Structures are given as structure tokens and as C-alpha cells.
Amino acid sequence: MNILDSTGQSLEVVFITNPIQIPVMIKSSCFLILLITLVLLEVQPLLAQVPPSGGSGKSGGQGESRAVDPDSPVVSFGPTPRQALLVGEKAAGRLVIIDPETLEVVARIPAGGNLHELATDGRYVYIGSNLPGITVVDAVAQKRIEPIDISAFGDRHAITFAGSHLYVGHETNRLISRYDPVTKTFDEVIGLPGGSHMLIVTPDEQRIFTASSNGSLISIVDRITNASGKKNFGFTNFPGDTRMEGMALSPDGNEFWAIHMHAKEISIINVAEKKLVSTISFEGGLNNRIKFTKDGKYVLMNELLGNELRVWDVATRKEVKRIDVGAGGEGIFIDPVRPRAYYAVSAGNKLVVIDTNTMTVIKEIPDLQNPDGMAWFSPK
Predict the structure, then answer these.
(1) Is 264 among the domain residues?
(2) Nearest by Cα to 272 from 244, 252, 286
(3) Which of 9, 50, 182, 190, by CA, is between 20 and 30 Å from 225?
(4) Sheet holding 308-313, edge to edge
(5) Domain that holds residue 266
């Protein structure tokens, strides 16, 4: 039967011939809806507590877990040791303090999500996260303190500490700002011909190495004084790639290596002569971090899309080994005391400890949510 509604549209009405079934159908439907609603109400809070997958696949370590509330309590298992490895959990948003003697976690300090680069002056840890400015953590007290306002210079990526100053790279705005933690002021701003995704500053603060994606340049920045005594900066630039990140300075300061991520090349620059002396071509998935070993004999290179840490012989410029770590990684840090390297296997949610004498894995530290940036704490 067809009837018209208030708009004039035709509606089809179907009559049920067995009216006895109507109450039963309505009762059953209502009961089913009620049951589903109760199940969802019970299960939803439980699902919110389930941690993300910690397997070796890429998705387990990169983006599935949520950062902890930055105001949530610190988890501490003891005081910060005299020397400590600092690790940033990018996904969980925590600064992790690890005792290098026992290789055990000492504390986990909430510091903001997408926790990336970090540096320390021997008391305070300076961190780039999704919190405003530079997040600052007192490593001894194991607590977050007042951040550093960098709004005058723009967003940051690179963070490093050298001499008595904190250096911050503002890649988009092509700037480097220098912060004095004693006076709590910025005392210097350096304009760059390219950006500054990563920074290396010599201990005497007289030379800065950087490479940029937005400027496709590798730059060596020197502090210079002219004949009249006026201080300035000198720039020596080399061709870069459309994506430049990984770079390393040899322990003796003689060679600077920089990765061209898209071109799959490594530029090797003689620092004293400020001359490009060699270019290494390689095959790989995605490589954006390199580090010299403490003795300067080898260079370690990450593999984000593979399962191996790659080892290059500095003298021969040849790749000599690949160390299987089970998943893709990013951050590499060299222990300044021991013949040891720490590799943040971000896709595997773990930190791998490598003996650089034998180039073998000696320990895995699990349960780190997408680890990346690292620094070394030693009180001054």
C-alpha cells in the first residue's frame, strides 16, 4: 500500500500478516542492542590500555603508541649515576636514563611527545619535543623544569651542547641560535646559506658543521677575526642533496662525512684543507645517521628500512660488515669511555649495544617506544 508523507513523497507500507510475532521481534531487537552497548562500554576502557605492538615490524615502533602525559609521574628506580646514557623515546615522549655499567634503565621522565634530539651540559638535558620551546630536564633531580622560549627564532630540530653553550638549529628559518644557560639568554644568532637539520660544534666552539635539505648544502662555519679585530663568520660550502641529515666528524677532527640520502652518496671532506676528497656511492633503503667509532677506524651507518647496522672501513672507504639487529634503526651513539656503540632500533622498540672491537651485539635493551636521539651525561 502506498501513502503520501507531509512532503508529498510516496511511502510504501508493508503490513505483517502475523501480528503475534511483532512483540517478540521488538523485544529481541531491544535486548540485542542493550547487550552490544554493555559490551562496548566494558571493552572500550580496556582497549585504551592495551600497549602498541612491540614486534620487529616498522609499525610497532613508529607512531602506533601514544606519548604519555608530560605531567604524569616520573618512574625512577634509583638515582642518576655519575655517568649515564640518555635516550629519547620518540613515541612515548620520555627521557630514559640508562646506567652504562649495568645497562639497566634507571628512570623514565615524561618530556613531551615526538621527542627527538637531545643534549646535556652535565646537569640539565635539553630536548626537542612537541612541547613549546626547548624542554629542559634536571638529570640529577629527574624532573622537568622551566622550558627555554625559542619563539623569536622559529621551530627547531638540531640541538647540541658545546663548550659552555647550547646550539639550536632552526632549519626552516636557516638560523643557528646560541643559548647561555648561566645567564639564561641567547647571545648569538647565525644566519646560514642553507638549513641546519643536524649540527656538530667543536668543543672550543670555533667551528660548526651542518648540512641542510632546504638549501642542499654542506657548510663549515668558522669563527674568524679580521685584521682590525672584528669578529665574524666564514662559510665554506659544498654541494648537498635535497635531503641531508646524517653527518659525522672523525675523532681527530681531520675528516667530515655527510650522507646524501636521495643520491645514495657519502661526501668525505678534508677539514684542514676544506676540500672534498672522496665520494662513496652505496645502495640502501633509507640512511640518515652515521658515526665514527671511538678509535676512528670505522664509520657506522643506520638502515631505517632494513634490519642491519652497516660498517664502513675508514681507510679503504669500503663497507666491511652488516650487523643484523632485527629491525630498522635510526640514532647511533658512541660510548666515550668504552669500545661500544648504542643503536636505537626504532622499528623494534629497543636499544642494541654493540662491541666495536668485534662488531657484535652484546646486549639488547627492550621496551623502548621508538628510541632515537641520545646523549651522554657526565657531571661537570
Answers:
(1) yes
(2) 252
(3) 182
(4) 290-292, 298-301, 308-313, 318-324
(5) 60-377
